[in-house]
Amino acid sequence: MQPGSPITWAFIAGLSVILLGFVLTSTYAWIANRRDRETAGAGVETAIADSAKGEGK
Amino acid sequence: MIAISCFFSIVALSLAITFWAASRTKGTNDFYAAGGKVTSLQNGLALAGDALSAGAFLGLTGLIFTSGFDGYIYAIGYSTGIPVLIFLLAERLRQLGKFTFSDVVSLRLNETPMRIFGAVASLIVISFYLVAQLVGAGALIELLFGTNFKVAVSLVGVLMICYVMFGGMMATTWVQIVKACLMLTGAAVIAYLVLRRFNFDVSAILQDAVAKHAKGVKLLAPQAGSYAPFSALSLALALMFGTAGLPHILMRFFTVPNPRAARNSVVWAAGFTNTFYAATAVLGFGAIAILSGDNSAVTADGKIIGGINMVAIHLSRVLEGEVMLGLVSAIAFATILAVVAGLTLAGASAVSHDLYARVVLRGEVDEKQELKISRISTLVLGVLAITLGIAFQGQNVAYMISLAFAISCSSTFPVLLLSIYWSGLTTLGAIAGGSTGLVAALVLTILGPSMWVKVFGFAAPVVTLDPPTLISMPLGFLICWLVSAYDRQTMRAANVPAALTN
Fold this sequence. Notes:
By secondary structure, chain A is mainly α. Chain A has one helix and no strands.
């Protein structure tokens, strides 16, 4: 932002809030989706291990 | 002629969607929640469509045209509403609820009083929002097509009843998706045309706007916050948390198959809405630079012909002639139709699912009967909204939207949030807190500047805070906490003698 520029601090702050809203939303969803995949993956691994144990018997 | 062709195309397309959706609406799950089969992208678009009402498209451009950055603050505030949904509610609602937010609040608390409270609060919020949209729709269609106000309101009302009654959530969702696509494309095209006129130099747009607006350089920074900081804070609270308490927005999370889809749909919605809100700066400041001094859009004393809501319409006409005017008018019409349909569905669900099926018949109701009641509720609600819309002709109804937001974040939002996250909340606490928030928002709005001065004509408001969220929202939370604490203490005291005798 150059001195005397019509793009004031208010615009920078406002647009940052709008952008931050989207960034936070996307980050939250990305982390939660990864957590879900890991939980689902762990579930599958447990099921495979359980079935392997069953076959061993 | 082009405007009328676009108008009829929108009506024909929406009726075709309704016809298609009606053939797929077999039971209550289809009617209330589109069978839970909506994908996250589709739901994201529908959510964006719900959030971007005619107030956002026409109102924000008009506000920026009149007040500059003070108007743009509304766009910034609205952009924070969708992220709040993902952090606090989206997944939990999908996990815990089925058709309405009352399903969630009544899960752990006493069902009958919670459903009555949920339905009443929903209907109050929806009524204010719906009547305001219908009055705005009537005025807009009257202005655009020269139709009589009563005919215009009745036409919108009849179409809205048809979508919901026959197509349920499936039709409402697809009408909303079509509208969101049209609106986002329309806004992108207008923003492109404005930028092209100034050789894609945003500074040039702002400099031209400053040179032509009466506020001059004050146009580029917030002014309202300096003399009314509490009202500015109150407005920020209403815009940030109001969205999270609106019944027609909350209903959207029941249309997706799982919590992950609910979460992802908020990301899509945030992407669409926040891009739109960022672009409103180009539309609003571009309108100041382009329309100021144009006799076809502005009167000699600097007022916009047809009122400030017509800024986007005039801008499109000045930029690209009658074709663009027709398209933008049709988009505005589609926007109103889609939003009123969503509101009517949320209202009908509150009556048929919460009050009739769960409270009156205690859940002992077959699907066909509930579906029939839903359709009757839609019809009754629609006719009532048309009647009220016509009765409010010529009234300043802007306060109704702010009232809907103030009530939703002071009443439904505190109860919903605490019922999900605080195990200490009791039924009595929830009812007392939610009702206090509701009454406080209602009374303080009546005593505030938007009603006491602008509607009743008094010289000064009793309460200067506008909207009253800064008082009513914390009050709602506080009463929930206080009454729940008292209620738990009373229950413990009542249980002690019983435990001793045992």
